Amino acid sequence: MRLFSRIAIRLAATLIVLMSLWAVLFYFAMADQIHDEVDDALEDYTTLIITRKLAGRELPNAGDGSNNTFTITPVSADYARRHSHYRYHDESVYIPEKREYEPARVITTIFNDAEGQYYELKVSTPSFEKADLFSAVLLWIVALYVLLLLITVGITMLIFYRNMRPLYILLEWLDSYHPGVNPKPINNPTRITEFKRLNVALQSAIDRSEQMLERQTQFIGNASHELQTPLAIIGNRVEWLLDESKLTDEQAMELYKINKTLSRAVRLNKTLLLLTKIENSQFIETSQVDLVAIVSETVESLSEIYISRQIKFTTDLPSKFEVQMNESLASTLVTNLIKNVYVHSEQGVEARAAIVGRKLIVENQGREMLDREHIFERFYQGSQRETSMGLGLALVAAICRHYNINIEYSFVNGSHRFEIDFAE
């Protein structure tokens, strides 16, 4: 989830809680204020009735247009002592003029005349409909919330985006950065102190990384070249001994074994150097490479080299299938994947290379499934042949990682299956 979306959701959730609490408090505060106003009017009306009653004057007429109603009931002195204070409550009363019941606010009080007779006065006046008030408050709260949410989120997002823009510039710069390609200096002017420090720290980290990468690349290249010279000299001397010296069969066999081991060391040195270059992103140049041509040429050449293994290798290829890759790495990927079939399959098995959609599929018959967790690791051999260095599939996996290509291994119907997905 993007940072903008997360902030908007949390801000909206916070506003919902706050506005809900505010709506409840506002409702009760407004209801209490209305009750206070009504109670004051009831007290004034009660005082008017009591004054007229005690003075013997005519009491207010029920039809005076105020919709107020009252009753005066004689009560005992004991009842008067127990209910001497003002009492307020809500109830439904019948309004004769409207011929219906309506909610009303009621006040009840006790008074006595000159003869000591106590009376209970009960006065009611129409009040507000709580349900109507609640609906009105809810409607306005919702409208206010939506308006406030849009304004708040809009202003917050605008302010946030403007202030976080240096961070997005840094992210774009990091996305465009590739190790070993001499990155451009960070051009991210800002007045925010934290982003200034982040610019400096990131630029320093990238510079140190580039220096370390350059030193590592130089070391690996120098070490590889330095190793190649003595290995080549040793190989030439061993071949000279085999060709020019009068050796016993036992001595010749030992020299042959030494030469074989030496050749393996040379191949290992070259392969490790290639792996390091791939992981250090030193293969920058890319072009449109036709995998159909590479697969066809590789199958043809390897079938001649490993003709003694009698592997029945078939192909199912379209007329053309181009991918954007470094041509050397594309050839290495295909060669190692197909060579893996010739080197590690049993003699006389069937194998196939096919391109289906945007997938390159290489499969061959086998007895049991390989270890999927370790098959692409360096020097992993499992039950493979002793001549294997365990780097072929590691090279394939490194190239796939370099181009963000998905590679999968499976064992289906007695066949090992490698799928490389070039989906765009």
Topology:
Elements: H1 3-55, E1 69-75, H2 77-82, E2 87-95, E3 100-112, E4 118-126, H3 130-176, H4 193-244, H5 249-279, E5 287-290, H6 291-305, E6 312-316, E7 322-325, H7 327-344, E8 350-356, E9 359-365, H8 392-402, E10 406-412, E11 415-421
Parallel strand pairs: 6-8
Antiparallel strand pairs: 1-4, 2-3, 3-4, 5-7, 8-9, 9-11, 10-11
| Biggest pleated-sheet summary | 5 strands, mixed
Helix segment tally = 8
What pattern of helices and strands is seen along the backbone?
HEHEEEHHHEHEEHEEHEE
Low-confidence stretches: none
Question: What is the CATH T-level topology of the largest domain?
Answer: Heat Shock Protein 90
Mean pLDDT: 79
Short structural summary:
The chain has 424 residues and is α+β, with helices and mostly antiparallel strands. It has 8 helices and 11 strands.
